[in-house]
């Protein structure tokens, strides 16, 4: 009698363990591994192309004028920012031209000033979107890249 009870209890434990293990295996097999993060958003670009300004060649007023052609791209992952940029491009272009006209050609052509110039242009683009389009979230453009800067006397 004692052997029958022990055998029955042992059989019941093995049966429950087998059923529980099978259920656990089936639930875990639905998950193919750790959660994969979503793919990164593509980087989109908005561009101000071929701005030409006439500025002094050097800080000496006798040196004459020079023409500077300037192009810059702005990077964003937000397609709405690029669309808003396109609509507001005349304002951004005008403010960028005003910024360029505060420099001399010698200063603009110095490579050590290009990072500060790109950051100033980035601030202009984000500021125009914030003020004119009430764009949210703020600062949709994360980087600016000077794609062309050429001086002609």
Automatic annotation (TrEMBL):
What UniProt keywords are attached to this protein's entry? Cell inner membrane, Cell membrane, Chemotaxis, Flagellar rotation, Membrane, Transmembrane, Transmembrane helix
A matching Pfam family = FliL
Q: From the Swiss-Prot or TrEMBL record, state where the protein is found.
A: Cell inner membrane; Cell membrane
**Gene Ontology cellular component annotations, sorted alphabetically:** bacterial-type flagellum basal body; plasma membrane
- Family in the record: Belongs to the FliL family.
Functional description taken from the UniProt entry: Controls the rotational direction of flagella during chemotaxis.
Q: What is this protein called?
A: Flagellar protein FliL
Provide the species name: Acidocella aminolytica 101 = DSM 11237
